Amino acid sequence: MASLLVWTIWISVLVAVANGADIFLNWTVAFDTTIRPASVNQPVITINGLFPGPLINATTNDFVHVNVFNDLDEPLLFTWNGIQQRLNSWQDGVSGTNCPIQPGRNWTYVFQTKDQIGSFFYFPSINFQKAAGGYGPIRVNNRYVINVPFPKPEAEFDLLIGDWSYDNYKSTRSMLGNSVIAYYNTPDMILMNGKGPYGHRMSKAYESFTVTKGNTYRFRISNVGSSVSVNFRIQNHQMVLVETEGSYTDQIRIDSLDVHVGQSYSVLVTADQDDSDYYIVASSKFLNTSNSSALVGIGVLHYSNSLTQVNGPLPSGPDPFDLTFSVNQARSVRWNLTTGAARPNQQGTFNVTNITLSQTFVLESSELEIGGVPRYAVNNISYSVPDTPLKLVDQFGNLTGSYQLDRFPTHSVNDQAAYEVSVVTGIHKGWIEIVLQNDVIAIDCWHLDGFGFYVVGLGDGKWTSEARRFYNLYDPVVRSTVQVYPKGWTAIYAYLDNPGMWNLRSQKLKNWYLGQELYIRVHDDDPNPAKERPPPADLLLCGMHMLTNNLFYQFNSYNSV
């Protein structure tokens, strides 16, 4: 009897752990002109007075409730970069899924970190607001019943690295109709956790992390910038790469790490040097800079018993234009096949060795002009944001014809540059191959909401089907943001088991804002909410198409069932 009681209690504990806890957060989002990370009078978007915003510290399967009060002077949305929103694209927080929170109003996001672990971040997704801040870190920790493939570190540090402009983001936004600003304008500074480079005349403060000799620390690093890839390194310290965007990686020892826009990594750093202070560096990739440039982010690793400030030259890194280094490092980031992640079974249980592809998309990004206006495009189509979110329209059967499903060309470049509300079918529970072709001389980064994808190949020049012979199908890393090198291609596989309306976009802010995106509609006809959740009862409504009594009646009837 006692053993039965113990077993029952243990089962109850496992069920509670599997279901996750509820986390309740209240955020007030506002402008602050006093923070001045670059000593320039400009509005910074803060959350509860913080820049960067507060940490979301969750565990696998937790439910996160974020009540967002919009104290800005324009509409606002947040997206949760890398959180897959299983069966629930209603919470994804992009223009195709959600109506924005109007100034002076609030709305509560409720999402689950279902079957995920890892390092991620959030940011405002519309109106070019990410250029003014509003971003912050997300940790999804392992449940205690899951073994982590490295000893518990002494502490964890979140490090958000990103490029920053001295200009007011609204001014930059208003000038994107100028091709020089749209295509060639570069940022002014690299920030670390919202602080400028150590020792730079324009920096109001610098970032510092305190460690104790002999201990090991986990740095969760995200590139939250708008356009610039960085190379990250710590003076006299090697790092061990252990995780990226929810996947445990083969543990490789590195001197520096390329982190591209929108990407997140975890590295372990052991404080194994003499008690002193050491430079932390994030230097810009593919830009001409000097060590004194504000485009070299500089922080400090401070040993607790140090009496010596940082001094001397910065630690050298790879040549910023060395594509070979970057490509080789990208190929060395492999999936750890033998460890569990969100679940106890090994990551390698899920693999792409013998899958059958259901679809292939070949998507070429480019710069172009439409009617004399600079735009970014995919297959010569520049995305036009409709006044009603696609997911909302889709809920009522696209009665108003807001978009034409599968009109977008997924295998070829359109003959003429054009605007389009680009929505394509993704076959539910099918495997899709997406080839991302970069037609410009700048590096690009792509992100897919709703899924982790397998990075199976990358190369230069034009992709052809012959490239499949060289794909890595054994241990490709699974992530949600991937770089595409200049005049090159990257190929990914994804299993479309998550019904919803999912954004596929460039992570480079100007590219995204000026049209480099599309949506993949993964649909399951089964109305069972276990297949896809219904819209929340407090769903925000917007757009001319929602102003008819007919649609309001359908919406209210749906929610009264």
3D structure, described in words:
InterPro entries: Cu-oxidase-like_N, Cu-oxidase_2nd, Cu-oxidase_C, Cu-oxidase_fam, Cupredoxin. This protein is mostly beta strands and 561 residues long. The protein contains seven helices and 32 strands. The strands form seven sheets. Strands 10-9-12-17-14-15 form a six-stranded mixed sheet, with no helix packed on it. A six-stranded mixed sheet has the order 21-20-25-30-27-28. A hairpin with a 2-residue loop joins strand 14 and strand 15 (247-254). The radius of gyration is 23 Å and the shape is globular. The protein starts with a helix and ends with a helix.
Short description:
With 561 residues, the protein is mainly beta. The protein is 11% helix and 36% strand.
Query: What structural category characterises the helix and strand content?
Result: mainly beta
Strand content: 35-45%
Radius of gyration: 23 Å
Strand order of the largest sheet: 10-9-12-17-14-15
Q: How is the main sheet built?
A: 6 strands, mixed
Helix tally? 7
Sequence stretches where pLDDT stays below 50 over 5 or more residues? 1-17, 549-561
Shape: globular
Taking the alpha carbons of the first and last residues, their distance comes to 45 Å
Number of E strands: 32
Q: Return the average pLDDT rounded to an integer.
A: 93
Q: How much helix is in the residues?
A: 10-25%
InterPro entries: Cu-oxidase-like_N, Cu-oxidase_2nd, Cu-oxidase_C, Cu-oxidase_fam, Cupredoxin
Pfam family, one: Cu-oxidase_2
Signal peptide: 1-20
Domain Plastocyanin-like: 34-143, 159-306, 404-525
